[in-house]
Amino acid sequence: MVATTIHLMRHGEVHNPGGVLYGRLPGFRLSERGVAMAHMVADHLAGESGGPRRDVVAVVASPLQRAQETARPIAEAFGLDVGTDERIIEAGNHFEGKTFGVGDGSLRHPEHWPFLRNPFRPSWGEPYQEQVDRMLAAVEKARTLARGHEAVLVSHQLPVWVTRLALENRHLWHDPRKRQCSVASLTSLRFEDDTLVGIGYSEPAAVLLPGASTVAGA
User: Which residue ranges run through the membrane (predicted)?
Assistant: First the structure.
């Protein structure tokens, strides 16, 4: 059996003082804590925090700035360059650039209500299944690239979460408050040859999580 592990990582905390749903908008960088999270995960994978050094041979990130910044210290820890894959980008969202809520947020404006008509698709953004399809295509490419070793794909909360739901044969529609995909977390897919044999979840930067940004769609 050839064992390969693909780690789907959510980027670190983002500097977002306005609390907007930033989606695919450019210019959203990591916060100071987000940078610390990225380095903590790099140390964890490289065995610098007491555990074993992982066999990472590829680091690939979404093209968005926050993902690229998260990937950089991990790649440096293994002497690698950061690759870019458009397929692991954040999901498209109608509410991108807006605050989301019933107070001063988008929900107080009737013109936005039609976008909430179907939570199962969802009607406000890129369909869940399309996200899963593109993420799994990127996983397959990474699995070929890192066959017999490990790769890290730095992506975003929703694409990572719905990919896990799909692989666990669960409904793709879900309560966003119940996602197990914190900032800087690792959802690890373990393969033997071409067969998925396990899914793990870890939070190497958990000590930095209290107070971290949890805006849905981040």
Answer: none
